[in-house]
Design goal:
single chain, alpha+beta, Gyrase A, domain 2, Alpha-Beta Plaits, Elongation Factor Tu (Ef-tu), domain 3, 6-stranded antiparallel barrel, 9 helices, globular
């Protein structure tokens, strides 16, 4: 099956990018080294191509009420120009995807999907629109998402004639929506841009001082910040408490939603047996997804996503309580080989 090309593909080719596959898309993996791109994101500003992230629109008098009954965060009380992150859950409270929701008008919401395709979202949630006065529309072909990361992101946006929103805020500039969203641990903004204007906007940000970043640098920054990516870090059986998403994605004063009973019970009782932690590999080796992790003879977890930077391999792993000890040495086993690793809390130490 042919890979989907980002609308910015010709621009990336002209910039000398190296490409790879991500979620069925052909995306730039590197423009420079991971260290150079990630370093600029920590000190300055870097723009990343997030074309695989689908964009949806919910419009109608019942848009907020309907969304509030579907997802984990408080969407009912969002003010115009505010946004928040939510998880999609099933009736057992298991995560089925992540999304950013911005209130763009009195009766309209903009949704940026994270790891979920628009088709899967519409198939899952379209059936719940029965008597609600709300229309769900896929805008993914008309809108492309890019991300500005770094402490100088606001200054770069200003030089490009765009206003930077704060965390949890969304602002409009012509037909562009800017959503305050940190994907790296160093602050950032998602830009939802008309696809017809994406080349112009990308070029303006580059001319204003943003470096171009590839998927490998973004992955390294994300992992070091301890930020999960669905489904690679959790699958469809994880809970928000296990993935450290409660603060970012949940409201406990919003009323009923799918999976609420289980999530509330866990929050009150505080009984999770596994949780996302970090592993610093002793060798510069990234284990495969779901590689077994042992403490002595006991299996205490599985490896999830990993990245290399500066000669150090870091891995996100789902660990059981016996291994919730920073500094603990464990064994990662894959393909008949055992590699030592050190447990670290998240975010990883600088």
């Amino acid at each position: 099956m042919a890979l989907i090309r980002t609308p910015l593909f010709p621009v990336h080719v002209a910039a000398g990018a190296q490409f790879g596959e991500l979620d069925g898309w052909l995306l730039p993996t590197n423009f420079r080294t991971v260290e150079e791109e990630a370093g600029q994101a920590r000190r300055g500003a870097v723009v990343f191509d997030l074309a695989p992230h689908g964009v949806l629109e919910l419009v109608g008098p019942d848009a907020r009420k309907w969304a509030n009954g579907m997802f984990t965060n408080n969407i009912r009380d969002l003010a115009v120009g505010a946004c928040n992150r939510s998880a999609m859950g099933d009736e057992k409270g298991k995560i089925q995807g992540l999304l950013e929701v911005a209130r763009t008008g009195d009766e309209s919401l903009l949704v940026v999907l994270d790891g979920v395709t628009p088709a899967a979202f519409v198939e899952r949630y379209g059936k719940f629109i029965i008597f609600d006065d709300v229309e769900l529309t896929d805008r993914s072909e008309e809108r492309t998402v890019i991300h500005m990361a770094g402490p100088e992101a606001g200054a770069v946006l200003a030089r490009a004639g765009l206003a930077a929103p704060g965390a949890g805020c969304a602002v409009a500039a012509a037909e562009i929506w800017l959503l305050g969203r940190d994907r790296t641990g160093f602050g950032g903004v998602d830009l939802v841009v008309p696809t017809s204007a994406i080349t112009e906007v990308w070029s303006a940000l580059r001319e204003a001082g943003a470096g171009a970043g590839g998927a490998e640098a973004l992955e390294s920054l994300r992992i070091r910040a301890g930020l999960v990516r669905w489904p690679v870090d959790m699958g469809e059986r994880a809970l928000v408490h296990e993935m450290r998403l409660v603060e970012a994605c949940c409201s406990f004063q919003k009323g009923c939603y799918i999976g609420q009973e289980v999530i509330n019970r866990i929050d009150v009782m505080g009984q999770v047996q596994k949780k996302l932690w970090g592993l610093r590999m002793v060798e510069d080796a990234i284990p495969p997804l779901e590689a077994e992790i042992r403490l002595g003879e006991q299996v205490i977890g599985v490896a999830r996503s990993g990245a290399r930077e500066g000669g150090v391999a870091r891995v996100l792993a789902v660990l059981r309580k016996a291994a919730w000890q920073p500094g603990l040495e464990v064994d990662v086993i894959a393909n008949g080989r055992t590699v030592r690793a050190i447990v670290e809390d998240l975010p990883f130490p600088a």
